[in-house]
Predict the 3D structure of the following.
Amino acid sequence: MTKSNGNASDPQRKLAAALPPDEPVAGSSRQPESIPPRTLLAQVLDRENLRRALKQVRRNKGAPGIDGMSVDELGEYLKQHWPGIRAQLESGHYRPSPVKRVDIPKGDGKSRPLGIPTVLDRFIQQALAQVVAAHWEPHFHPHSYGFRPGRSAHQAVRHVQATIREGYGWVVDLDLQSFFD
């Protein structure tokens, strides 16, 4: 309820300001500890992490980037060029290739731009993502469903349905149009 001047009533203001019990305050003990960059890079370049990254890139398939290299060619390329790539990563001199830009048609007649990295860059991104996710995933809100491993839009809908059955009456749906443009 709002007062005639547009401000929330005292009970509503207190309710809005109350911290939900499952959300930590910034800086609380649930915040991730800082990890030295060299330790993270060693984890990224760990042989087992790289093996899993290659397997995931192969599983995802996908179109070639601007260099034309297919996912099937990546393994042989890495056998020949990995020492140099690794040295570039360790020295901080590795630079990803430009992204191939493709327009994907949408149902409304418009199109949306899609960037396709090279398979080598996708491999390196995957190796990085695996390490970062392992460190950050435990700290995300338990009811955050977007772009998280083992989470889906269906699970989000089921959670919303369950909270409505519990008596909650509001759902907020945000769409940040062109956020990454």
About this structure: The first strand starts at residue 100 and ends at 105.
